[in-house]
Fold this protein.
Amino acid sequence: MATRTSWTAVAVLLAAGVAGAGAIGKLPGALPPLRAEFGLSLVAAGWVVSMFNAVALASAVFFGLFADRAGALRACFFGLAALAAGGALGAVAASPAALLVSRFIEGAGFIALVVSVPGLIAAVTASRDRNLAFGLWSGYMPVGFAVTLVASPFVIATVGWRGLWWGQAATIGAVAFAIWRLRDRLPVTAPHAERTAAAIVEALRHPAPWWCAIAMGFYALQWIALMVWLPTFLLNERGASPLAAVALTALAVGVNSPGTMLGTWLVHRNLARGTLISVAAALMGACAIAIFAPALPDGWRYAACLGLSFFGGITPPAVLTSSQAYARSPAQIGKPARPDHPVVERGPVRRTAGGRADGLGDGRLVRLALCHARRRARRGRRRAARKPHRTAPARPARGGMTRRSEIAAQAEQELVRAQLPGRGGRDPASSEIVDLVGAGGFL
C-alpha cells in the first residue's frame, strides 16, 4: 500500500472510468440515426442497448477472477483494448448483427475495466485518502455518460454516428497510453492470486453482500434504463428537438454526480451504509412513481427524473465501500474495498481493523488496542506489587515478561515490521496483528 497518494495516477484512472462510461453515453443520442440506417425497431434497438449491460451482468464474476489471477493492471489494459476494438468494429459495422457483436465486445471490455481500476486506485492511495478516492470513482458513470451525451449531437451532426464511435475509441486509446506511461507506479502482480473456489463460495454464503448487490442492481436498472431511453421518449412522444432532448437528458444524468458526492460525504461522516442505501432506494421509488404518473404535468415528471438521478447517486458510494464491513477475511475483500481494513469479530460487536464501528481512522483502533493492552499489563504489575500476599505472581514468559506485556510487545513489533517499506505482504492492519491485539485487549 502507498504511503503517499499519487493523485496524478488517481486522475488518470478516473479518466479511464469516464472514458469507459462514454461507451454507454454515446448510444442514446445515436439511436435515431442507428434506427434510420439499419431499420431497427424499438425492440431491436433495445437489444443494442441491453447487450452491453447483459454482458456485464453475465461476466462480472469471471472478469473479477481474471483480474485476481492476471493482475489489475493487465485486466485494465485488456478492458481498454476491448473497448477500443469494440468501438472500432461498431464504427465499420454494416449490419445490425455486426453492431451487436461490437456492443458485446465493448461490454466485456467495460466490465474488465471497472473491476480492475478500483484495485489500482487502492494501490496508489494512502489509507487516509482511500475513501475519498473511491468516492470520486463512484461518480465515473454520470460524468462519462453526461459528457458523451452532450457531445454526441454536435459530433453526429458533423461526422455522423460512425465518427462518434471512432472518437470514443480514440479517447480510450489515449487513456490507455496515459496509464501505460504511469505503469511504474501501478502494481502488476495479482493481489489475491491465492483465491480459490471454496473462498468464493464461502463469501457468497453470507446474505449482506447479496443485499448490497441487489440494491446496486435495482439502482442501475432504474437509472440506466431511464437515462438511455429518455431522449427517445422526448423525441417521439413530446416532439422535442434532438438538441433539447439531449440537453434535458444530460442535465438529468449530470445531477447524479452531486448525488454521489453527497453519498461520499455521508459515508465519510460515518453514517450507516444500510440507512443510506434504504433511504436512497425509497426516494428513488417515490420519484419513479411520479415519473410514470400521467396525471402530473411534464414539468413535475421531469423534476422527478432529476430527483431519481440525484438521490440514486447516494447508493454507489455506500455500496462500493461496504465490502470492508462484510468480508470475513482479507482475501474476501473485493477490489472496491479497502484492502487494509480486514474485518475482525470479537464478541457481539463486528468491526473493521480500521475502526469503522466506532468511527476511528485507519489503524487508530490498532494503536488504541495496543495502548489498552499495555495499560492493563502495567495495572496488573502494580496490583501484584501492592498486594503480593493476595495475588498470585504472574507467570513469567520469555525474560520475565507477563503474558499481557508479551502480547503487547509482539503486536507492537508486528506493527513496526508491517510499516517498514519493501517488506511486502503485510498491512498495518493485517489480520495477524488484529488477532494479537484482540487477544491482548480481551484476555
